[in-house]
Amino acid sequence: MGIGLRTSVLALAAVACVSAQSGGELRFCLGADPKTFDPLLAEEEPSDAIRFLTGGVLIRFNRQSQQLEPELAAAWTVRDQGKRIDFVLRRNVRFSDGMPFGPADVVAVIRRIMDPNLHSGIADSFRSAGGDIRGESSGPNGVSMFFSAPVAGLELLFDQLAISSSRAGPTRNAVLGPFMLAEHKGGQYVLLRRNPYYWKTDSNGKKLPYLDSVRIDIQANREIELLRFRRRELQLFDKLEPEAYQRLKKEAPSTVRNAGPSLDAEFFWFNQTPDAPFPSYKRRWMQSKLFRRAVSAGINRDDIVRLVYRGYAHPAAGPASPANRIWVNSKLTPQRYDPQLARRLLQEDGFRLDGEQLRDREGRAVEFSLITNAGSNTRTQIGTMLQQDLKKIGIRLNFTPIEFQSLIERITRTQQYEACLL
Q1: pLDDT tens string 317-366
Q2: Closest by alpha carbon to 103, among 122, 88, 92, 115?
């Protein structure tokens, strides 16, 4: 269950003029250090950004056209009703260390994601989709993957599966993407340099990427990041908050662009993990569909859109954004704000109001904590509004912004949280 806000501001980019001439360095910021440079372990935004810039995939889902495009695989065929996919690999492709890419590298990655000791969101998406998976090479440029169960949209799985070298030793750090890791100073920056063996060229046959390097500074304070952008120390400012967007639009309208609805969303969800380290009676609340529906009905999404996002967002009707033309269900409508419905659902679920405090069947006061990442003005404002909305139906919400890396650790490893806004 989530707030389900879709925003057109989160995908905004304020970009300086970029030409197609080779050379130069692109500079932008991430809010935290990457937790890993292993593409299979990338789960949070900083690590995922590095994976996207350095990793080579078999198939790429173009976020703008929303079409699948051949990358390391020149062609592919889905067979056996989604239980098998055959790839024809692109010829004469090399890793950033100059070593050739081939079927053995793909098979090795598939073998690794099937390792039960690998704790990886990307691996989990493969395991949950297709059960047991095996890869087999077929000739110098062919590889097939077999799934124990049919997989809908099988090709989409491979958009995030970066192919690493199957060779042992330092060469395992070799990549197939446009850039490679050159230097990392924890808490300061990540420097990426052009991959000299990158296989892509532009329509005129000119080698890509055009840039010599990408420097990603680590900066959690978005006000400082905005100041640096205004000073032209940065060329890209991604995911602008509404207030910053309006400020830049007024000061320098040519530097900002409203990119329309994003594929991203702001979600508020409960931790329903069976062994999560908080009282079992709270888990019973959160596992109740009636309780979750009541909380959802008690949230005024229209106010959040108007006051927090200044109109650059709209309530979501489901998990897929309208920007996702493949999966969005246009027949769904957003949950409307209805505190009376929320109270009826809670009463049906055995809760009762004691004055202004909601209590469960055993008389326990209903309260829970909500975590989000510190440093986001938008999420801080949303959290405050959630507190106010839920108080109206008798629920006490303890809102706690925490350091980003700690938040990721809690929601992906320790499960030490009750609810999260992200």
Answers
A1: 888 888 888 888 889 999 999 999 999 999 999 999 999 999 999 999 99
A2: 88
CB distance 218 to 372 below 8 Å: no
Give the integer Cα–Cα distance in Å for 358 and 392. 10
369-384 pLDDT, tens digit per residue, is 999 998 888 999 999 9
Closest CA to 309 of 5, 16, 66, 47: 5
Tokens 């003029």 belong to residue? 17
Helix (H, G, I), strand (E, B) or coil at 60: strand
Q: Are 137 and 143 in contact (CB under 8 A)?
A: yes
Query: 264: which DSSP letter?
Result: -
- Three-state SS string across 352-421, please? EEECCEEECCCCCECEEEEEEECCCHHHHHHHHHHHHHHHCCCCEEEEEEECHHHHHHHHHHHCCCCEEE
How far apart CA 138 and CA 399 sit, in angstroms, is: 55
The pTM of the whole model exceeds 0.85:
no
| AA letter at 267 | F
What does residue 413 show for φ and ψ, rounded to 5 degrees? -125, -65
From CA 145, how far away is CA 134, in angstroms rounded? 6
> How many other β-carbons are positioned within 10 Å of the β-carbon of residue 227?
12
Cα–Cα separations (whole angstroms), residue 225 to 185, 238, 408: 18, 10, 22
Highest mean pLDDT range out of 84-98, 263-277, 318-332? 84-98
d(CA 365, CA 357): 7
- Establish whether the linkage from the previous residue to 242 is cis, with ω within 30° of 0: no
Identify the three-state secondary structure at position 201.
Answer: strand
